[in-house]
Write a structure and sequence with these properties.
506 residues; alpha/beta; 6-stranded parallel beta sheet; 16 strands; 30% helix; 18% strand
């Protein structure tokens, strides 16, 4: 007999699990939807001292009363914090932990990072104490629930109930750090990823492939993954599928992510064009790829600044400016008489977009001040999640910016990227871009969660008559320059570079 202990996210209670619990019981399992102290129908039970430890003890009482041979803890969103805390205290009782559209919090992390409102986060971090009147965080109004996660799959009636039955969250449950020993790290885990909320197995594999040490644990054979094609509240949008997935997870099924130790990571494979080496100068975090005849030229040259995506952990080696794709682009434009610029910026976490934007601005200032560069003719070319960093320039294009390019970009924060500042929304910023030329390279086999942001951007661009050129890559993948060595892919790179340089030289 397997017992599933179901723990909901912020502002909700056990009621959201009702349909899933019924399906699990019909399958022969035990199901225990938990209402944590201060949540759901227990909203009256909370006080200023209610904290994460309170919720951990709530779960410990349920675990200790359960006589099933196998106990599976299921944490949704915030619920994964008390789930991990309780599993760490009772590891001998836990057969598996299921992260249902939930993150991977570590020792010392705060659930406060889940709150999408920066002002609320700042206020809670600077509270004088738990006895203040604002010891609870009110739930979002109906129209704001999508900021906490994608509401895809929810009917208007279900969404209205989700908002109507929500209760304030005790603040200390979000601000008290999670305390873990190594015991919980030894337990089998399953991630259930909701694709409409911005998660997918492909994205997990890409993060592992980058060499980020934080994600290497996901290659453990005891870790499995499932996908659900729905939003952030799957227990309400597709309860049958959730129950089936939980049963399969308990049976040790699911996709395993390979460590791929014998295969070169996609981002370190050769550039799809055979371009000769060019002179390269390194200044701090910036590399200049220079045309061969630049020293003899009687005029400065335009420049293209290539902006990588991320997050990229600071310990990853080589760093992005040395990845073959960016080196290839830098050399390619240098061979066409233009200064190619690659750089490393500090987008190490989703909360780092502001810092990364500062790094890029500093790099552009350095490049424009170089006497070999025509400071009035610069293009910025963004890749993947670096696409969000284009928002500042699209919102208020400076006169020296002759073109913005973007390859397989993310052009709006994914629904589960709550830490990203709202200013980084190119899909909104394009409305004030005027006639700034934009060259967008789109891949046919893009991940669905990213393709949605591109379509949102293009729809907004069309409404404001923005100057957007779209270059499609048939059967192209995200990061195609080192994956798809096809004639269509080479043609797309050549067309995009040619278009950007034409804008620079006008």
């Amino acid at each position: 007999m397997t017992a599933f202990i179901l723990v909901a996210g912020a502002h909700t209670g056990s009621w959201i699990w009702q349909a899933v619990a019924d399906r699990l019981r019909e399958s022969g399992a035990q199901a225990y939807p938990v209402t944590l102290t201060g949540m759901g129908e227990r909203g009256h039970a909370a006080g200023p001292d209610t904290d994460l430890e309170t919720h951990i003890h709530d779960l410990l009482r349920v675990i200790d009363r359960t006589d099933a041979a196998e106990v599976v803890l299921v944490g949704h969103c915030y619920g994964i914090y008390p789930v991990l805390g309780a599993a760490d205290r009772r590891p001998e009782r836990i057969a598996r932990i299921v992260h249902l559209d939930a993150g991977m919090p570590q020792h010392g992390d705060q659930a406060l990072t889940l709150v999408p409102d920066q002002a609320v986060r700042d206020r809670l971090l600077h509270r004088a104490g738990p006895a203040e009147d604002d010891w609870r965080i009110p739930p979002p109004p109906l129209q704001a629930w999508q900021r906490w996660g994608s509401v895809a799959g929810l009917s208007p009636a279900v969404l209205a109930r989700l908002a109507g039955d929500a209760v304030p969250q005790p603040a200390r449950t979000l601000t008290q750090p999670l305390r873990l020993s190594k015991a919980v790290s030894e337990l089998p885990k399953t991630g259930v990823l909701c694709t409409a909320n911005g998660s997918s197995i492909a994205m997990v594999e890409a993060l592992v492939g980058l060499g980020d040490p934080r994600f290497q644990v996901l290659t453990d054979p005891r870790v499995s993954f499932f996908e659900l094609d729905t939003g952030h509240w799957p227990m309400l949008s597709c309860p049958d599928e959730v129950a089936e997935t939980l049963v399969r997870a308990a049976a040790r099924e699911g996709h395993r992510v390979a460590a791929a130790v014998n295969e070169q990571p996609a981002h370190l494979r050769p550039f799809l064009l055979d371009v000769p080496e060019r002179p390269r100068e390194r200044v701090g975090r910036v590399d200049l790829h220079l045309p061969d005849d630049l020293a003899e030229a009687d005029r400065p040259r335009p420049a293209v600044v290539f902006v990588h995506g991320g997050p990229v952990h600071p310990d990853v080696r080589p760093t992005p400016r040395d990845w073959p794709g960016f080196v290839g682009y830098g050399r390619y434009v240098a061979g066409m008489g233009v200064v190619g610029v690659t750089l490393d910026h500090r987008l190490h976490d989703l909360a780092d977009y502001g810092r990364a934007a500062e790094d890029i601005a500093e790099a552009v200032d350095l490049v424009r001040a170089d006497p070999r560069v025509d400071g009035d003719r610069v293009a910025l070319w963004y890749f993947s999640s670096g696409g969000l960093l284009s928002a500042d320039r699209l919102a208020a294009p400076p006169p020296w910016l002759r073109c913005v390019a973007a390859s397989y970009p993310i052009l709006a924060p994914l629904p589960n990227w709550g830490l990203v500042d709202s200013r980084f929304r190119p899909a909104d910023a394009v409305r004030t871009a005027g006639r700034l030329p934009i060259v967008l390279t789109r891949v046919e086999l893009e991940r669905a969660e990213i393709a949605v942001t591109v379509e949102e951007f293009l729809a907004a661009a069309e409404k404001c008559d923005a100057d957007v050129e779209v270059i499609d890559v048939p059967l192209g993948h995200h990061g195609f320059e080192t994956i798809d060595h096809t004639e269509q892919a080479r043609d797309a790179v050549e067309r995009a570079v040619r278009s950007v340089l034409e804008h620079l030289r006008r």
